[in-house]
Specification:
Radius of gyration: 29 Å
Shape: elongated
Strand content: 5-15%
Number of helices: 15
Number of strands: 5
Distance between the termini: 32 Å
Structural class: mainly alpha
Strand order of the largest sheet: 2-1-3-4-5
Order of helices and strands: HHEHEHEHEHEHHHHHHHHH
Helix content: 55-70%
């Protein structure tokens, strides 16, 4: 009995390690992927909502006192004089200005004359900013820290942003746009990839495993027609699969974020059209990629193993939306597979739709899909690949 058990033991090990692709995919690949993903996440999290080391905020001030002018320069703040307070507030709301500091006209004299024990209101400094902007939030922190330090040196003789007045000029639409642009691209990539994963391996690798693909290949049907038919059909199924999850997520966002009013009204039919275009092109490309991998695999299980690294790559690229501070302004970014879709989605959800960037991303995805269809056609014509055992 021991000899029989040992024989089975050796046979199973030989079968497993004899297939190098399965062995590498099962043993080596998980460790490599975990290391890569966790390393990336650690680097990304360390820079979340941060600015570059050489960041210089755009700050305007009203009646900036001489006592703070020198300290501001030492802190790396270049402060300009504000010509119009209302205009400056509008610029902050539009994320074209980082911070507005409003001082009393005789700030130094008021601070010098103020008696803390009198109980009278202290001289007030007002800081207006936009929390939906990483740069504006950073500028606010820098200015607040400077004023707090200066206030402590004067025994708390003035206040910063007193009372219940609103100093954060970010609107609900800004807040929703910031949140949705950081979360939805990642979720959409997850939903779309899940829909593709549920259909493509079964449609191609499954038919190879069952032997039914041979029946299709011996018919007069063109290989290109077979490839296109499968990709278009799988794309529709994947779209429908991801659609319900996407709609459910979008409908739950206002309640999740505790926002008042109809935040969705900020998004026009143009935004939804743009989103449909990028989603459709992304699904076509995803299906093409997974179909290529499935055609190479022998079984459904093997196809799913090979697709896993691609899924993790798509998820990691989706996560970059959380740390990028908005859509990329570089045209080259919209030529990179997966990354271009994520950046286009970020721009749409952040209400910063750029049609040039969007169309570049869509056309790039369609070109990559066409290349995938060509590759799948060649694989369907290869007996070595399609009839491997």
């Amino acid at each position: 009995m021991k000899n029989g058990m040992f024989t089975i033991f050796r046979k199973e090990l030989a079968r497993f390690f004899g297939d190098k692709r399965t062995a590498l995919g099962t043993i080596l690949l998980p460790g490599v992927l975990i290391f890569a993903v966790y390393t990336f996440m650690g680097s990304a999290l360390s820079s979340q909502f941060s600015v570059d080391e050489d960041f210089v905020p755009v700050v305007q001030a009203v009646a900036l006192p001489d006592s703070l002018s020198t300290l501001a320069g030492q802190a790396g703040l270049e402060i300009q004089s504000a010509a119009d307070v209302d205009q400056a507030k509008t610029l902050i709301a539009d994320q074209e200005l980082d911070l507005l500091a409003v001082f009393p006209s005789d700030f130094d004299a008021q601070v010098s004359a103020y008696d803390v024990s009198s109980g009278a209101p202290a001289p007030a400094v007002e800081l207006y900013y936009n929390s939906a902007s990483v740069d504006s939030s950073a500028a606010y922190e820098m200015m607040y820290t400077l004023l707090d330090s200066y206030e402590s040196s004067l025994s708390n003789k003035f206040d910063v942003n007193p009372g219940s007045q609103v100093y954060d000029l970010a609107t609900d639409a800004d807040t929703a746009g910031t949140f949705l642009s950081s979360m939805m691209p990642m979720l959409l990539m997850l939903f779309l990839f899940s829909g593709c994963m549920a259909t493509a391996p079964e449609s191609i690798a499954g038919e190879k495993e069952r032997g039914t693909i041979a029946t299709l290949l011996i018919t007069p049907l063109k290989r290109s027609d077979l490839a296109l038919g499968k990709i278009f059909a799988l794309s529709i199924i994947a779209l429908l699969s991801g659609l319900s999850s996407t709609i459910g997520t979008l409908l739950s966002m206002p309640a999740l974020m505790q926002l008042e009013g109809n935040v969705g009204a900020a998004y026009t039919p143009v935004h939804y059209l743009a989103l449909c275009l990028i989603i459709l092109s992304t699904v076509l490309f995803l299906v093409a990629c997974i179909s290529l991998i499935s055609a190479f695999a022998k079984t459904i299980k093997e196809a799913q193993t090979y697709v896993t690294p691609l899924m993790i790559l798509a998820m990691v690229v989706g996560v970059t939306a959380m740390f990028g501070g908005g859509a990329s302004a570089n045209l080259w970014a919209y030529f990179i597979p997966f990354y271009n879709s994520v950046q286009a989605m970020v721009g749409i959800f952040a209400l910063e739709l750029n049609w040039t960037f969007l169309l570049v991303a869509v056309v790039s995805n369609l070109v990559y899909t066409a290349i995938g269809v060509w590759g799948l056609t060649r694989m369907f014509g290869s007996e070595k690949i399609m009839f491997q055992r």
